[in-house]
Amino acid sequence: MLSNRSIPSSTVIPVLVYPDVRAAVAWLTAAFGFAERLRIGEDHRSQMRIGADGAVIVADVHGERTPPRPGAETHVIKVRVEDVDAVFARARAAGARVLQEPTEFPYGERSCTLEDLGGHHWDFTQTLRDVDPAEWGGVAVDG
Length: 143
What we know:
This protein is an alpha/beta fold.
């Protein structure tokens, strides 16, 4: 696969709409530890990265693009992290709305769910151990 410095190399890149791109970039940096990698116009779009290969594009409200509405969950962005409790503390201190405090699940993950300033829901998850999906009711479909 060819590489292109104008777009993140991640396979899946969510594009999230915010009413104020610059405020969203500052907040995602302070609360979740994202880093801006490319700016397109002052307030049009920003490509951000997290971890070794995570990416998201922050987009402005334009045309038919609108940010989430309160009470309507249309998506959750799952981000794998090394220390979910540290991410949770940092995000809460930055004003993230807590939807679920860090919780350990039987499938081997510890996760928390937070809402950002634009209404997007983020699920930060930390792997605690390897668990066979059959142990918690999952069914492996492809080896």
